[in-house]
Fold this sequence. Notes:
Helices cover 39% and strands 17% of the residues. With 315 residues, the chain is of the alpha/beta class. The protein folds into two domains: 8-125 and 281-313, Rossmann fold; 128-278, Rossmann fold, CATH 3.40.50. The chain starts with 7 loop residues before the first strand and ends with a helix. The mean pLDDT is 95. Bound molecules: 2'-monophosphoadenosine-5'-diphosphate.
Amino acid sequence: MEPSKSVYTLADLKNWDAVIRDVSPRPRVAVFGDPVEHSLSPQLHNPALQACGIDAQYIRLQIRPEEFDEAVRLLPKLGFYGTNCTIPHKFLALEAMDRVDDLARKLGAVNTVVCDDDGSLVGFNSDGPGFLRAVREEFMVDVSDLRVMIIGAGGGAGRAVAVQCAVENCERLVLVNRTTDKAEAVARELEPYFQDTRVLGPVKRLAVCPWETEALHEELNDIDLIVNATSVGMKRTDPDLLPHHLLQPHHFAFDMIYSPLETRFLKSAEDRGARTTNGLPMLLWQGVFSFEWWFNRDAPVDAMRKGLMDAIASR
Ligand code: ATR
C-alpha cells in the first residue's frame, strides 16, 4: 500500500481512481485550503476515524479559490462524506452550497461541507459552536452569562464569534478592531439582538470601542471574557495586544491563536491573575462538530484531543 500524499490537488481529484488506487483507507473527508500544508485537521480526524472503525481517511486538498466550485462538486461523485474549508474558502463555500444551515448563514461563512445522500452539498459552520464549547470547557461558564470583548471583530473569525455571542444573547458585547469602521459595520448588523431590556446599569450592551488604551481601560472594567481574534501574537516581534496593566484577575483571556501555544497576551493575562486559554480547545471542538455532522454519531473526543496534542508535540 502507498502512504497517502501529504497534499492532493484538483488535478488529483480529476484522476482520482488512479491516484488513490493503492491508498488505504480510501480518502473520504478532507480540508480545502490555500495554503493547506500547515493544517492540523488530519491529525485530529484520522485518530477519530480509526477509533470509530470507519474505513476512511482525512486528507489535505490544496485548492485555489478559482478551483473551489469544480473541486467541491466532485466530492459526492468520489464518495466523500464532506470537507472542511479553511483560508480562503469559508466565504466562497457559502455561495457554492445547495443548502446552508441557519447558523452558518448568520455567521456568514461555511467551514464544513456535508455531502448529502442525494449528492447535494450542505454547508455548516463549526467555528461558532466550537468557540462556545471551548469557553464552557475551559472556563466552566456559558457565553450567555458573560460580558464579552472581541478584539479583531472586523475580521472573518472575529465576526463569526461576535455573531455567535449575539445569538447566545451574551450579557454585553464590545467590539474592537484596528480598522474601527469594520467593527461598526458588525455592530450595526448585531443591533437587533440587543434590543431587549437586559439592563446592566449605565453601560451599553452593544458597543464599539476604539483601540486606544484609555477607552479600552474603561470598557474592560465591565468585561469578563476577552477574545483575541486577530493575528497579533503569532510572531515573536508582534507588539502587546493590550497593555499589561489593563488585564485584571476577574478576566477570562481567550486567544484564538494556538501557535505559539502561549502568546504574550496570554502570558500577560496569567501574570495578572486572569484565567486563560489558547486556540487549541476551539480547534478541537470545531473538529468534533464537523465529525458529528459528517458521520451522524458522537465523536471520540479523547482520541481527537490526543491526536491534536501528539501533533503539537511533534512540531
Ligand atoms: P481571519 O479570517 O483569520 O479572521 P482576517 O479576516 O484577515 O483573518 O482578519 C484579521 C483580523 O486581524 C482583522 O480584524 C484585522 O484588523 P483589520 O480589520 O483592521 O485589518 C486584524 N489584524 C491583523 N493584523 C493586525 C495588526 N497588526 N494589528 C491589529 N489588528 C490586526
